[in-house]
Predict the 3D structure of the following.
Amino acid sequence: MNQSATTTPAIPLDRRISRFMSDQPLVPLIILLIALVVVLQILRPGIVNERWVANTVRFAIPLAILAGCQTMTMLTGGIDLSIGTVATMSAFIMVTQAVLHDPAVAILIALIPAILIGLANGIGVGIFRVHPLIMTLGTSLIGTGCLLVYQRTVIASGARVPESLAWLGTGITYGFPNALLLFVPVAAAIIFTLRSTGFGRLLYAVGDNEKAARLSGVIYWKVIATLYVVSALLAGITGLLYIGLIKSPSLSLAEPLVLPSVAAAVIGGTSIFGGRGGYAGTIIGALILTILTTLLTILQMPEGARRMLFGLILLLVTAIYLRIIENR
Amino acid sequence: MTRFIARSGWVSGLIVLLALLLVFTKAIQPFYGTADFGSLARAGLPFAFAVAAHTIVVIAGGIDLSAASMMALTSVTAASMMNGTSEEYALAVVPFVLFLGLVLGALNGILIVVTRVPDIVVTLAMLFVLQGAALLVLGAPGGAAAEWLKALIVGTIHVPGVPEAITAWIPKALVLLIICLTVVWVPLRLSRLDLSLYAIGSSQLAAFRSGVPVARTKILAYALGGLFGAMGGLSLTMSTGIGAPIPGPYLLASVAAVVLGGVALGGGRGGIIGPIVAVFILRLVRTDLTLLAVDPNVTAIIEGAIMVIVVMFGAFIALRSRSS
């Protein structure tokens, strides 16, 4: 009776929900994030408090910035696997140079190799058209080798993490991690760049249809070179932040973050083939991965089972999410 | 012969490069002999299988990040199953492990087809799953391998009627590699299934419209990749006598060799011979650098630089030939 009275054709509720979800791809991600927190709270009542939130955010930030590098390169259809090496290099060089120089000088010195690697990536991918996977793997191999040689020269002088970076990496003020001071501007800049600047548009254009972008006058190699330099620079800065958090320099400091950074970007809805995605989703993806790691840690399973579960959940989340946003 | 060279210019170039490198090795180290060649073949064996696994997947337009973990899992499975059991029991272990690789590889393919998640993400997830499984099977390096299995790759082959001087240059490891590759690749060629692999690699849509069963072919490619991965895992157990749950540095090395070997990462182009030759080139470069007493850390830099430069050069040639 009621149904026949309505003039507009009734859309079933599930269709409306799925359409809403595909129009607002961030909503299902946020729901998943909240669900994970709820599961965590059920498994270990009382764990979710102010300190836990600050801690989670603190550990998610380096991953989120690296995943930002990944998001931007993936938008052009590329991938940057050298970010782990770049972050490690800049962190290691900074702590060893900080013994000899003022922290500010040490930071500047530490960012030089990052820029060089980014430039090499950009030239290789942009001008010589090497596949980004190969190019960035190759430069990361070279970078690791250089770092090993460099390590030999500074082995006697020791290392020192400057107080300012330790404060930025580990400190918490009024319940907010100090790392947010770095992250919020960086995230805002990335989101603004991707959404409202010409450069951001070029990234989407190149990734969506390279030929069309070229024919409309986009100078491909300039876009790509800039992109990889920016990506490497961000990775270098992340390394500096990460060493402030971890505080013990090693030659494989940020390597374990590389594959999760790809995962965070993919979970966040950025297409690995380019042209689609954004940074806001990636940030939530990084948070999800960090909480997932916590969740698996408190389950007290053997390391092997934990890794298996991580892989399975990663696959499941991506599959479900792709279904939702493709359901247009 | 000339047609062969023209058709496979890249592969012939690689073979010439390998020969030049061998001559160079002999020149800088006059005592480089059959024993060293045998150890080169033995050291290259797991790499060669990893590369074969990667090649077949890349030709079909995919990428397999999980190959190294697959090798770790199959290696620890074999080593822990053979631990403390009889020599004959190992006869059953080998087919079981190969089957395991085939099934897990097929699972990779099925997941990609069913979930429609990009290959790189599925195999990344599988990397964690397989690595975790390997840790569950064996928490620390251990286990054992049957003696006859270890003997399979040590020493040289003896062919009646061929002088010792020649057979001394044919290490068993190399023969094993060639046999394993042939057993998989030749039936593929004969059944013309390789055509479907190349077809879905160059264009999935075109292949689908020409009636190629895309899903089935993709699963087949990953299954065969898994089979090669299991062979690689077995060869690891053979050469070390134990199984180690932590995957070796095979991802980077195998991607490098695949590209060096002339297989386009986009899929649809290349063969199996090029990447295998490229593996031995990379191993030989490493040997040469050691013989030249180069700092091992500098070796990493040089290897990376070679990889990048060769790929750039190849891409540059491809660009030039396309524009002209």
